[in-house]
Amino acid sequence: MKKILVLTFIVCSFLSFSQNLTGTWSSSYGELRLIQEGNRIYGDYADKGVIDATIEKGGKITGRFTNKAFPDQYGELSLVLNGYDSFIGSWRFGNGSWNTNSWTAKKTNSNTPKLQNNKRYAGQYESNFNTKTIFNIEQKGLRIEGKSIDAKYTLSIYLKPDLMHFRDGFIADKANNSLQANHQIISGSPKHRDQFPAQIWNFWIEKGSNKKSYYMKFIKPMSVAEFKSATYGTAKLSSNTQELAQVESSSTSNTKDIRYRLTLDRIYIVGVEDGPEGIFSGYELYGIAWCRAYDSNGKQIKPFDVTYSDRYGRFWEIKAKDYIRTDLKVGAQYEINKKITFDFPVDGSKDIQEVLKKSKIELTVELKDYDSTSSNDILGKERVTLPLNEALISKLGNNKLPQPTQKGVINIKHGTRGHIMVTFYIEKLD
């Protein structure tokens, strides 16, 4: 029987909270990317899940982690540090037997790592709680934490092992610290679970015998530093958090990321291959889109907010059985509105435009026409390569990097008259 891991650390009693376990660890069960804040440790368990732990008195660390292969279970682990850069530990799944001394790890980097599995809910959101409230929200392991920008409310939600359903939580009214004033969150989940971060999610609040549904609508992403500054204010940070922010700042002083978001916008039917355009019934479309990005050294960049469904970078698909049933005659259009975001690293010692010129986004679209009585008709497959160089920014239709809010085009020609136009646009995010 396969087992999963969740976290319980045992640390030597001389470990003080001033000793920071923040960093990247190479372990027998995959890479760990951990952040320590005070007596709290959270981060990524490889590409499988998250870690959420607490350092107790005497140096013992207990907690949980998740594994996406086992979405209904938490795991436990107990470890002993060897100094501050390696450990050996035991783990178990659920209430099963302990796997003694089977988890080993060594710290490979002390810089604050970029967390990948703790981003599902990170960002700024608009909610209909209390009519309209803006929240700055951060995911830390198994917990979603946030604060309204007017400082009236704090948010705390504990996640189930699948990281998509809420176990419990509350919104606290800062004007009234009484527990009776808390708005108890009893359940919730993202509306579209393949979106990362979650664009819209619902949660239910129970107050006495009444239950009411609310939503959170994603506004914009926020870095860890932005979250701390906007939510808590630099002057109000604890000494440990200030220390963490300094580590983060120093580790990126020579390199910064520039974030670009590509939106696959919509499909336009410009012309059809068969028959008079006024009579032809239209296409029954399905298809695939791939999107990959490469930095100035040619290294492929992982998307910030999308999990690829194959190794080629597939990020959007209409399957044959789900073909677009709309009568797509000439002039018809179908909205895609699929977004994918990349962080391009830029060395501050080099010319930014030269670095971006060597960076690129590749977008490929393939469309087919569904026909249940014959082999499916491949209409076309086209790719555009988009260098991130402002000298190459072009207007609509030139198949180069479009200006923000303006569209680029992929033209798929079919026969002598068939013509489908797929539009997209790229935005530079602050």
> How would you classify the helix and strand content by structural class?
mainly beta
Order of helices and strands: EEEEEEEEEEEEEEEEEHHEEEEEHEEEE
Largest sheet: 9 strands, antiparallel
First-last Cα distance: 47 Å
Number of DSSP helical runs? 3
Shape: globular
Strand fraction band? over 45%
On the 0 to 100 scale, the average pLDDT is 78
Can you list the strand order of the major beta sheet?
A: 1-6-5-4-3-2-9-8-7
> From the alpha-carbon coordinates, what is the Rg to the nearest angstrom?
25 Å
* Secondary structure: helix percent: under 10%
Poorly predicted sequence stretches spanning 5 or more consecutive residues: 1-18, 234-253, 391-405
Quick one: how many beta strands? 26
Can you describe what's shown?
- By secondary structure, the chain is mainly beta.
- Helix content is 7%, strand content 49%.
Brief overview, please?
The chain has 430 residues and is mainly β. Helices cover 7% and strands 49% of the residues.
List the main descriptive attributes of the protein structure presented here:
single chain, 430 residues, mainly beta, nine-stranded antiparallel sheet, eight-stranded antiparallel barrel, 3 helices, 7% helix, disordered N terminus
List the helices and strands and how they pair.
Layout: E1 8-10, E2 23-27, E3 32-37, E4 40-45, E5 49-55, E6 60-65, E7 75-81, E8 86-93, E9 99-109, E10 123-127, E11 133-140, E12 143-148, E13 153-159, E14 166-173, E15 183-190, E16 200-207, E17 210-220, H1 224-231, H2 239-251, E18 255-271, E19 285-294, E20 300-301, E21 314-318, E22 333-347, H3 352-358, E23 360-369, E24 377-387, E25 408-414, E26 418-429
Antiparallel strand pairs: 1-6, 2-3, 2-9, 3-4, 4-5, 5-6, 7-8, 8-9, 10-11, 10-17, 11-12, 12-13, 13-14, 14-15, 15-16, 16-17, 18-22, 18-26, 19-20, 19-21, 19-23, 23-24, 25-26
